[in-house]
UniProtKB/TrEMBL annotation:
Name of the protein: Glycosyl transferase family 1
UniProt lineage: Bacteria, Pseudomonadati, Bacteroidota, Flavobacteriia, Flavobacteriales
GO function terms (MF aspect): transferase activity
Taxonomic source organism: Flavobacterium circumlabens
Keyword Transferase attributed: yes
Keywords: Transferase
Record keyword Transferase present: yes
């Protein structure tokens, strides 16, 4: 077993992002230099970073139905993430500006029995992530 902890970034925006964006520009500058990101889960970008492993999010009609009727959000991201997770390895999973993905990600990791090998980091670059009364309690319980 390799004792290295791998860092996976989950992004709703393709990285590198071809348009203007604040945190996407921040990550572009970071990822073009010396960085600690091993893998990115995101929609397929126009170009990719050669030194980073990708797992692209595949948006399907089935995922759209799951979101709408079964209230299963982010399944397409977790499917892409699952392709990167190897047995007996440890991971830091970073989420940027997507408060709504934190709790479903934690539930997904628990359902796969791998939550003890994954550390969730959340970074918000814009607005505070709390939208509903008492939602910050659920939010912080899901973070490591």
């Amino acid at each position: 077993m390799d004792n290295t902890i791998k860092v996976i970034l989950i992004s709703q925006a393709p990285l590198p992002f071809s348009k203007i964006g604040s945190w996407t520009t921040l990550y572009k500058n970071y990822l073009e230099g010396k960085h600690k990101i091993d893998c990115i889960v995101c929609p397929k970008p126009e170009n990719s970073y050669k030194t980073i492993q990708y797992s692209f999010v595949n948006f399907t009609f089935w995922h759209k139905l799951q979101r709408k009727f079964l209230k299963k959000k982010n399944q397409e991201y977790f499917q892409a993430l699952n392709k990167l997770i190897l047995p007996n390895e440890k991971y830091i999973i970073q989420i940027v500006d997507n408060y709504g993905m934190v709790k479903p990600l934690k539930n997904y990791l628990v359902s796969k029995g791998i939550e003890d090998r994954c550390y969730i980091q959340f970074f918000y670059h814009g607005y505070l992530p709390y939208t509903k009364k008492d939602s910050q309690e659920d939010f912080y319980e899901a973070l490591d």
